[in-house]
Amino acid sequence: MHNKPIIGITGAYVKHNSYMEGVYVHQDYHKSVILCGGIPIILPYVSPEITIEMLKLCDGIILSGGEDVDPKFYGQDPRIGLGHTIPERDQVEISIVNYALKHQVPLLAICRGVQLLNVALGGTLIQDIPSTVSKALQHSQTAERNRDTHWVTVEKNSKLYEIFQEDRVRVNSLHHQAIDVLAPDLRAVAKASDGIIEAVEYTKVSSFFIAVQWHPESLASTNPLMRRLISQFIASTQKI
Ligand SMILES: [Mn+2]
């Protein structure tokens, strides 16, 4: 029995050299979880079966940022501008989405996470915004990741609006992909001024299930709204 919720954060992968190769998450993920009242654990991707065993230890799940989702998972070939992909990670995280929905485990998906979630539920992605969307904003910001650089408009009557209590919110932006065709059971609840979908909610579960294209974990220490988003996610895990 533990007092603070255990938050599983999906790991990315880096290889510096043959001595340093393995699981990676940016420190802002685990720092923000601690700041907002949770205990972070990092989930390496091994196989869907092993991941399910890890998830049984978790009260909530963060799908973290990272590589592009392999377009084969949404029935497309790679296009110009597609970045590095790791299909093994995609497969594991798709199984995490299914597990979270089946067991109503609260889930916060961030950046790649919103894209992965959309693909897992039957949607498609814009493989590269700059080469696909004319008059797009600068979604790969040149500013530091803890700086907010563009606005999003938040839909009223959404859980995200309930959290923020504001319909225009400043966000950071570190993505070159975005949702194209929205999955049937997802609702777009925030958009940038160029029409890019910046947040979605799953409409068929009562547990916390929000996905954002920006990086709240990197804003949480300085931005009260983003701290509230992560705090409410972590607080929601104690209701189950
Ligand atoms: Mn953006």
Give your account of this protein's structure.
By secondary structure, this protein is α/β, with parallel strands linked by helices. It has helices spanning 27-35, 48-55, 87-103, 112-120, 129-132, 159-164, 224-236; strands at residues 6-10, 12-17, 20-24, 39-43, 60-63, 107-110, 125-126, 150-154, 168-171, 178-179, 186-191, 197-202, 209-212. It has a single domain (6-239), classed as Rossmann fold (3-Layer(aba) Sandwich). A 9-stranded mixed sheet has the order 4-1-5-6-13-12-11-8-9, with helices on both faces. Helix 2 crosses helix 3 (87-103) and helix 3 packs across helix 4 (112-120). The mean pLDDT is 96. Manganese (II) ion binds next to loops. Pfam families: Peptidase_C26 (PF07722). Its EC number is 2.4.2.-. GO terms for molecular function: gamma-glutamyl-gamma-aminobutyrate hydrolase activity; glycosyltransferase activity. It comes from Desulfosporosinus acididurans.
